[in-house]
Amino acid sequence: MKPPDLVFPEDFEEYAWEIEAKGWFLCPVRVGGRTADVTFYDPARLAQDVSADHASGVPFAVTRLVVIERVTADRMREALGLLPENFFADLTPNQPGS
């Protein structure tokens, strides 16, 4: 199977610095014939969001969360290569037109 591939918006490079500054990014990832959203967080932003949700009584929940040192294209790609194979095991093939 081919390695997972990030599916960036065409204009991603124009605002990539903003993504790194805000500390999180939701990105579709193509895995074979399947696609899944993966949320990348840096540790500081994750702690802030968990704390804020906890303080307001809301549970913090993110499906397919990956925590990396900095939210950059290179770090996201690197992280995908280090994930266990079963990280995407529950995906079903994309339907035509999806």
Question: Could you walk me through the main structural features you see in this protein, from its secondary elements to its overall organization?
Answer:
There is one protein chain. A four-stranded mixed beta sheet has the order 1-2-3-4. The protein is built from three helices and four strands, in the order E-H-E-E-H-E-H. It has 98 residues and is an alpha+beta fold. The longest helix is centred in the middle third of the chain and has 13 residues, at 43-55. 35% of the residues lie in helices and 21% in strands. The mean pLDDT is 91. The protein has helices spanning 12-22, 43-55, 73-82, and strands at residues 5-6, 24-31, 34-41, 65-67.
Question: What structural class do the secondary elements suggest?
Answer: alpha+beta
Low-pLDDT windows of residues: none
Shape: globular
Distance between the termini: 21 Å
Q: Please count the beta strands (DSSP E, at least 2 residues each).
A: 4
Order of helices and strands: EHEEHEH
Strand content: 15-25%
Helix content: 25-40%
Mind summarizing the main beta sheet?
A: 4 strands, mixed
Mean of pLDDT: 91
Task: List the strand order in the largest sheet.
Answer: 1-2-3-4
| Gyration radius, in Å | 14 Å
> How many helical stretches?
3
